[in-house]
Each structure stands twice: as structure tokens, then as C-alpha cells.
Amino acid sequence: MFRKHRLFIGQTSTSIVRNITNKVSWEKPLVSIRGSRGVGKTTMIRQYIRQTYGIAPGEALYCVMDSMYFTKNSLLDMAERFHLMGGKHLFLDEVHKYENWSKEIKELNDLYPDMKITFSGSSLLQILNADADLSRRILSYNMSGLSFREYMHFYHGKQLPTWTLEEILSNPDAVCEEVIKVVGSPQKLFEQYLRVGYYPFYDGDETEYYSRIENVVQFIIDQEMTQFCGVDAAYTRKIKAMMMYLADNLPYEVNIAKLSSYLELNKQTVLAYLSSMDKAELITLLYSDNKSVTKMQKPDKIYLQNPNVLCALAKSVNIGTLRECFVINQLKTFHDVEYGKTQGDFKVDGKWTFEVGGADKSFEQIADIPNSFILADAIEYPIGKKLPLWIVGLLY
């Protein structure tokens, strides 16, 4: 395990480190980092280890939990030996691939309270409902893919600060001036981001990138949804069919009866699968009133989780759908987003209303609504309350 630690950490670059790395309270006894496959959880953990402890194992040990080592050795035994050798911080990557992870982590926390444990897992990892009662002990973080701001930094070397939504809406002119001063014209980079910018594994080959996204989607459905959501392996083909259907019919005005007929499943099963796909970060379900949502309530609209998944799966991408998908994906990271119905496209945190469209989008639909804004594509500076669409990509 020490040898593997040295190999993994030694080949990890720290040239660009995401902001969330500095927001994680790594010094807490139990820390979990959840996120969809491919968003960069492993890289972030390895970067932190290299920056904090160096390449050589000793006080820190990084373990991949589907390692062959754990077919013959338990986590408990390994951690005990590590602690006896002076180990201070144990990092467990892909912890959901180890069968009794919750019970053994709880026992380790009881036995060695001086040893910190940080673990990563699927976005579906149910810490609150795990076998052992870990909910009161664990500090949890959810990790998203790259924001538009992070994409510009990662792939184009353009470094910008983050802004809160309140700062953006109160002074959009100053924000846009700062972006244009650093980036020049952001529109071309924004169009690239919508196609290939969300996952941090784009290497210049768009076809290969989309193939990897399809592999991510298939892995989540075949492996994680069957493990965490109780989906029968025999029905994974139905969920894949649902993904393809949604990709070509977005934004989907939800007709559960029609979707049930297409998939040859009953309505309750379709709703249960949609809920699981939302938790797995494959799709985003939008409701007109999040406070009153019940477990089996029909969503008002369905989107794919991010623009790159839409580009990878759809036969033909509608630009309006792509814009809305981007806005929801970026805003939902820190904000509560509801479907606007007759009052704009989206309502955020119960106080802001947004209409999304092209440069010529008018205020006709939201003219009398207070705190309402247009997010318009293909503009670089605000025009009153009409803001550039890409501006909501600067939140993290």
C-alpha cells in the first residue's frame, strides 16, 4: 500500500488546483467527499496529499478501495497497522466499492480518534442511511464538475476570482469588465465550455471525450444505481433508453403516461427511476415549488445534468435547451432552483426570476416581476437587467 501510495501521489500534478480544495476542512476527524464519477474527486484528494504531506507515505496513506489488496485484507487490519506505524491521516478513495465501509470507518473512529479519515464516494453514497450511524460525525462535501470559470483556468490559463450571485446581480458591469480584461472575449470560450468543458478529462479529442462521458453514464447506471438504488440489473437497459429519450426531448414537459408507455413500465416505477437518476446526477428534476415536493410527485420539467452530457447523448442539440441546461447546472451548486412556469424560466432562492434566451430576448414575459433578469447568449456586457449568459458560470 505504501508503494502504491508513492506511485499515485508521485504522478499527480499540482499545477492547477480547484477552489474546493481550500474549502474542505481536511483537519476534521471524518470528512466525506461525494460526487458523480469523473468530476475530479480522486485528483483533488491526491493533490491535497502531495501539497500537505509530500510524495512519500508516512503520516498519510492513500488507498483505492477496489484494490486487490482488500480481497485478502480488511480495512480494519490495514488501518490498525498504519496507526501503529505512526499514521495520522487515512485517505480512502471510492469507499463505496468496499462492502462494509460504514461499519469499519465507525469502528476506526472509535478506536483511533486521533487518526483523521477522509473518504470519497459516489454521489449516491447514502451516508445518512449507512449501516452505522455516521451522520452526526461526518463533515460532507459535494463536488461538481468544472464551472465555466474553472474551465477557463484549467484549459486556457485565464484566472478569475469567484463571485456570489448577489455580487453578480448587484454589479454585473464591474464583473463583466473584470472578465473581459482578463479573458478578452469570453463568448468563444463559453461555446467551447458548453460542448467540452464540464468534466476535467477533455484532451482535445471531442469524439473521445463524448465516448468517455457515455462510459461514465453507463457505469453509473450499471454499477452505482444497482448498488445504491435497488435497481434490478435486468432494468438498466430501460434507464439507458430513458436517458436517450430525454436527451432528444429536452426540456421535457413531463408526461409520465407517455414516458411509461415508451419504456413499458408502470408510472410508479418511472417516477422512482427518475428520482434515482436525479440523485445519481444524470438528470435534474425541476419542480415549481420545492418546499411541497412529495416523494412520488411528478416533476414539472426534466433536464440532463450538464450541457456536456446533453451534447454527448443527443442526436441534435437544441441551443435553447443547452443554454437552460447550463444555467440550472451552475446555479444548483449553491442555490435552490425552481421551475418558473408562467413567471420566467427559473426562480432562484424564492427571490430572483430568470428568463434565458438569445441576444434578442425581450422582457415581455417578466416585465412586471420584481428582481427579474434575462440571461442572454452572445452578449458581453449587461444591458440593464439583461446579463451575459456565461456570467452565472463564475460562482465557483
Topology, please?
Layout: H1 2-10, H2 20-23, E1 30-35, H3 41-53, E2 60-64, H4 75-84, E3 89-93, H5 101-111, E4 116-122, E5 139-143, H6 148-156, H7 165-170, H8 172-183, H9 187-196, H10 206-228, H11 236-247, E6 252-253, H12 256-263, H13 267-279, E7 283-286, E8 301-304, H14 307-313, H15 319-331, E9 337-339, E10 346-348, E11 352-357, E12 372-376, E13 386-388
Helix pairs in contact: 4-5, 9-14, 10-14, 12-13
Describe what is shown at a glance.
The protein is globular.
Give an overview of the whole structure.
By secondary structure, the protein is α/β, with parallel strands linked by helices. Helix 4 packs parallel to helix 5 and helix 10 packs across helix 14. Helices cover 40% and strands 15% of the residues. It folds into two domains: 142 residues, P-loop containing nucleotide triphosphate hydrolases (Rossmann fold, 3-Layer(aba) Sandwich), CATH 3.40.50.300; 246 residues, no CATH class. The strands form three sheets. Strands 2-3-4-1-5 form a five-stranded parallel β-sheet. It has a five-stranded mixed β-sheet with strand order 9-10-11-12-13, with helices on one face. The protein is built from 15 helices and 13 strands. The protein is globular and about 70 Å long.
